[in-house]
Write a structure and sequence with these properties.
binds amidocarboxymethyldethia coenzyme *A; Citrate Synthase, domain 1; 3-stranded antiparallel beta sheet; globular
Length: 428
């Protein structure tokens, strides 16, 4: 892993130099204000973290380093991990090294197979995924070496990178095992060292042999990899790791946040939502029927899954990338047709809903991803968030490697009580 380490080290020195300069010249400069509505409103829009793996521009979407989605969407997930960590795409030698490292670390611990088989069939696949990761925590080299004279604070990031590669290399096999064993009740299919992550995953899932299926998985793993530092899962994972809980603890914790319906589970909920529409209105609902359906959902106090975002203020470019894929490979899919009709109908309704309170009436990535997976034969939708999580762990790992490399301290914001707030406001 010498080349990857060298490149991360290089990046860490550049970023570390910038931070030292900023602190030297501006340590006490104010960069924002905190409004009461932010304090009481989930810290929305409050600038309170620095995360160098990726950035979400409200009007342009996700950037990894300086690359926007159209500039990285054709890459492999392995290359994206490199980009998240090192701030550059790997050259041929660097990629060869990474592939070799991944293959060497891909074998699951023996207990994992019986562990997956032993868990209750009713358990949600995300619970399994998180538990599988947590079950390997004792193997953390960070944990094993922490406190020994050989492991200095300056090396925390290297041990975390080591753990990250050990973990990431096993995740496609774990995810596929959850699908095959837990959800389908079938035998697992072997990992192949000849194949990259997406092709391996496509083969190990064993539901579809079309070339475009592994292309969909590649795109899926690339688009979900990271979404800056403040979203529920990435932030949770980073907070946990900031206590020097190793990356297994941190990834599992982040995934538990991703499992919520307002976050990663939304892709499963979106598919169920579309199935509900088809069950009630048939497979080819009209836009008028959909409009009535949406209005009824809102009148009953339900959110429209796949619409809205805490940061984005446009149609999510990840949604657009999936739409382009769908138009190319499965334009006649009934679910895709309904996704398009929803896109035509929902933003106009949400714009006026609750007096214009919905900050972003446009679709996010979850509004379409599940429909494409379903089209290709992944019909157990409880699995969709596992795929999301498999990709998102790339970001969790890269964020923690960089944060530890930059010597970022334990995260511990201050909370206050109503009384504190009232007293403070009365004095103003
Ligand atoms: N349907 C109905 N109401 C919505 C809505 C939607 N899709 N999106 C926002 N609203 C409502 C909120 O519930 C809130 O109402 P309230 O103040 O009465 O509770 C009001 O609009 C203002 O919310 P906001 O500032 O626009 O959004 P937020 O930053 O608080 O929350 C999000 C963002 C994504 C949780 C929200 O838009 C939502 O619940 N969307 C549906 C679920 C979804 O698609 N989640 C996936 C997000 C992407 C991801 O993480 N994978």
């Amino acid at each position: 892993m010498e080349l990857l380490k060298k490149n991360v080290n290089k990046r860490k020195e550049i970023l570390g130099g910038e931070i030292a300069d900023i602190l030297k010249n501006h340590a006490d400069t104010t960069v924002g204000e905190i409004k009461v509505k932010q304090l009481l409103g989930g810290m929305r829009g409050m600038t309170s973290l620095v995360c160098n793996t990726s950035f979400v521009d409200p009007y342009k979407g996700l950037f990894i380093s300086e690359y926007s989605i159209p500039e990285f969407e054709d890459r492999l997930p392995e290359e994206i991990f490199y980009l998240l960590c090192a701030g550059k795409f790997p050259d041929d030698d660097e990629m060869a090294e990474l592939r070799e490292e991944i293959n060497a670390r891909s074998k699951l611990p023996k207990f994992m197979w019986s562990f997956i088989r032993s868990l209750p069939k009713k358990m949600h696949p995300m619970t399994l995924f998180s538990m599988c990761i947590l079950s390997m925590e004792g193997r953390s080299v960070f944990k094993q070496n922490y406190g020994t004279p050989e492991m200095t604070k300056a090396q925390y990031w290297e041990y975390t990178l080591e753990d990250s590669l050990n973990l990431l290399s096993k995740l496609p096999t774990i995810a596929a095992a959850i699908y095959r064993i837990h959800l389908l009740g079938k035998q697992p299919i072997d990992y192949s060292p000849r194949l990259d992550w997406s092709n391996n995953l496509a083969q190990m899932l064993g539901v579809n042999s079309e070339r475009s299926f592994s292309e969909l998985l590649r795109l899926y793993l690339v688009l979900h990899c990271d979404h800056e530092g403040g979203n529920v899962s990435a932030f949770t994972s980073r907070v946990v790791n900031s206590a020097l809980s190793n990356i297994y603890y941190a990834a599992s914790a982040g995934l538990n946040g991703l499992a919520g319906p307002l976050h990663g589970l939304a892709n499963q909920v979106c598919l169920q939502f579309i199935q509900g529409i088809h069950a009630q209105l048939g497979d080819s609902p009209t836009t008028d029927d959909i409009t009535a359906y949406i209005n009824n959902e809102l009148e009953n106090g339900r959110v429209i899954p796949g619409y809205g975002h805490a940061v984005l203020r446009i149609t999510d470019p990840r949604f657009s990338a999936f739409m382009e894929f769908g138009n190319k490979y499965c334009p006649n899919s009934a679910y895709l047709q309904t996704v398009k009709k929803l896109y035509y109908v929902v933003p106009n309704i949400l714009k006026d809903y609750k007096g214009g309170k919905v900050a972003n009436p446009y679709p996010n990535v979850d509004a379409i991803s599940g429909s494409l997976l379903y089209h290709y034969g992944i019909k157990k939708y409880g699995f969709y968030t596992v795929l999301f999580g498999l990709s998102r762990v790339l970001g969790f790992c890269a964020q923690s490697v960089l944060a530890l490399g930059l010597n970022q301290p334990i995260i511990r914001p201050k909370s206050v009580t109503n009384k504190w707030l009232k007293d403070k406001l009365e004095k103003q």
